[in-house]
Design a protein that fits this description.
- The protein is of the alpha+beta class and 129 residues long.
- It contains 2 helices and 9 strands; from the N terminus they run E-H-E-E-E-E-E-H-E-E-E.
- It has 2 domains: 1-58, 2,3-Dihydroxybiphenyl 1,2-Dioxygenase, domain 1; 75-129, 2,3-Dihydroxybiphenyl 1,2-Dioxygenase, domain 1 (Roll).
- 19% of the residues lie in helices and 36% in strands.
């Protein structure tokens, strides 16, 4: 059994699609539109087989999750980039591109090497070795 996909409501659908395609090598499908519901989405597929569904529709309530404070429920997406050096490299790439680094590269107590950045809509993204 595997997780097929994770879905995220977003405000700026095309900006978010471009972020995950550009920085994490995702491949997006054609935009899906449901005119009746005023709903649009993309599926972003990654080499591992995992997919991310980005969805947009008027009337969706904003979350109270700020990126800095954390609340119950899903809290982050984690992307494994293969090595400690790649975690460091990608963290600097995000910093130079103007994305906020909220967790500097470090070894965690349970043996992961990771950093944490915020995507364009302040979702927490872990970059792991």
């Amino acid at each position: 059994m595997k997780i097929e996909h994770v879905a995220v409501w977003v405000r700026k659908l095309d900006l978010m699609r471009e972020f995950y395609v550009t920085y994490f090598g995702g491949v997006a499908n054609e935009k899906y539109r449901n005119e009746k519901k005023n709903y649009e989405s993309y599926f972003i597929a990654f080499d591992s087989g995992a997919r991310l569904e980005l969805m947009q529709m008027p009337g969706i309530t904003d979350t109270t999750n700020s990126g800095h404070e954390q609340f119950m429920g899903l809290t982050h997406l984690a992307f494994s980039v293969g090595s400690k050096a790649k975690v460091d490299e990608m963290t600097e790439l995000f910093r130079k591109a103007g994305f906020e680094v909220v967790g500097e590269p470090r070894w965690t107590g349970d043996g992961y090497y990771e950093s944490v950045i915020l995507d364009p809509e302040k979702n927490r993204i872990e970059i792991t070795a």
